[in-house]
């Protein structure tokens, strides 16, 4: 395929901008971008799974194209449970041992966890060095690699320590999805559906009609889905880089979802947790009169294909309520939610994108699935 570019232009500071490049062969354009940076060291950061699949090959290919650079490949154990300060410390210590200076560029090769960890390593190493995102999962391609959010989890919750640190470029090769297990593909498809649910009814319907083609990685269909989802994310990031307002819309399903992830000790994948969270938060919107039963039923019918609704029975309501108090959208110890208005549209009232919901409503919404 011919490379497709989506440009992100960020306001206010130094007219910052970067490209998201979608194409089959990323080595040549990746090498070209690296040569525009004032760096001499390259550190590829990946996880133990992706290292075997693509890490060693990427290192080899870049060495052929960038012979004057010093290249290193580092990895950490795969999985959300390893998205920690310990992992960051080990990676940065390894970089110090290699005498990596501020003339170092990090390449994040992997899924959402790798992107978050590698991005945070870059954001904090010597007060900040450049990095490039090379996502290998659908979730990372359409969501976590775009927009500059980096961070790690703590025992108190997900993504509670982090920084906004925009990448130099994002390179997306849909062929990486060929080695992605089906459950991980579904994991990313949940985030795709979230984008379309909040911003694009036509694309939500496209996913409904082409669901099996997406799972079979039909080239034309999957490329359209990736492109349209990224367009939405890029547009939101350009309007609200630091999540002061509209960007919080992309947290639809995440208030409940993050709580479920943590309570499961990250045995539930992020996408499935968000899908379960969307179901509960749709029910909240139904209970407070923001959406109709028809809308709820239509969306439920799509999401239930991607997640196991019965998993909600594994959680105690009081535990979920306690966890959501640490959600970043909370204020004055009150939980606030993104509420759907209809498919493709979200509620906005008085300039607010998130809305305080009475705890009794949250309990009622959870009881629908946990009893």
Describe the structure.
- The protein is α/β, with parallel strands linked by helices and 371 residues long.
- It folds into two domains: 4-177, Rossmann fold, CATH 3.40.50.1970; 182-368, Dehydroquinate synthase-like - alpha domain (Dehydroquinate synthase-like, alpha domain).
- The chain is 46% helix and 18% strand.
- It has a four-stranded parallel sheet, with helices on both faces.
- α5 (138-144) packs parallel to α9.
- The longest helix has 21 residues, at 219-239.
- The termini are far apart.
Strand-helix topology:
Blueprint: E1 4-9, E2 17-22, H1 27-35, E3 41-47, H2 48-65, E4 70-76, H3 85-97, E5 104-110, H4 112-124, E6 131-135, H5 138-144, E7 149-154, E8 157-164, E9 169-172, H6 182-199, H7 201-209, H8 211-215, H9 219-239, H10 254-263, H11 270-287, H12 293-303, H13 317-324, E10 336-337, E11 340-342, E12 345-346, E13 355-356, H14 359-370
Parallel strand pairs: 2-9, 3-4, 3-5, 5-6
Antiparallel strand pairs: 1-2, 7-8, 10-13, 11-12
Helix pairs in contact: 3-4, 5-6, 5-9, 6-7, 6-9, 6-11, 10-11, 10-13, 11-12, 11-14
């Amino acid at each position: 395929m011919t490379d497709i570019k989506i440009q992100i232009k960020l306001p206010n500071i130094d007219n910052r901008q970067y490209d998201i490049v979608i194409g089959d062969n990323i080595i040549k354009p990746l090498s070209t971008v690296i040569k525009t940076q004032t760096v001499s060291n390259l550190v590829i950061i990946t996880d133990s799974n992706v290292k075997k699949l693509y890490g060693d090959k990427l290192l080899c290919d870049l060495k052929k194209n960038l012979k004057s650079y010093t290249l290193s490949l580092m990895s950490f154990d795969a999985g959300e449970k390893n998205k920690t300060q310990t992992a960051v410390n080990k990676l940065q210590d390894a970089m110090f041992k290699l005498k990596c200076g501020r003339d170092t560029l990090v390449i994040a090769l992997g899924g959402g966890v790798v992107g978050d960890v590698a991005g945070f390593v870059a954001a904090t190493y010597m007060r900040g060095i450049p990095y490039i995102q090379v996502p290998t999962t659908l979730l990372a391609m359409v969501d976590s690699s775009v927009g500059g959010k980096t961070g790690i989890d703590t025992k108190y919750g997900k993504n509670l320590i982090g920084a906004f640190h925009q990448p130099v470029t994002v390179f997306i090769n849909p062929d990486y999805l060929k080695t992605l297990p089906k459950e991980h593909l579904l994991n990313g498809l949940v985030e795709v559906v979230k984008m379309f649910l909040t911003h694009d009814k036509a694309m939500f319907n496209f996913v409904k009609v082409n669901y099996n083609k997406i799972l079979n990685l039909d080239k034309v269909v999957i490329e359209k889905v990736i492109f349209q989802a990224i367009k939405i994310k890029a547009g939101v990031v350009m309007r609200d880089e630091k999540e002061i307002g509209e960007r919080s819309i992309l947290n639809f399903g995440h208030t409940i979802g993050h709580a479920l992830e943590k309570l499961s000790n990250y045995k539930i994948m992020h996408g499935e947790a968000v899908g379960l969270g969307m179901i509960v938060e749709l029910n909240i919107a139904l209970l407070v009169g923001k959406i109709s039963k028809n809308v709820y039923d239509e969306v439920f019918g799509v999401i239930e294909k991607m997640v196991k609704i019965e998993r909600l029975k594994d959680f105690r309501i009081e535990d979920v309520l306690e966890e959501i108090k640490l959600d970043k959208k909370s204020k004055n110890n009150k939980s606030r939610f993104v509420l759907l208005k209809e498919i493709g549209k979200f509620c906005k009232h008085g300039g607010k994108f998130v809305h305080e919901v009475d705890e009794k409503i949250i309990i009622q919404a959870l009881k629908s699935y946990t009893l």
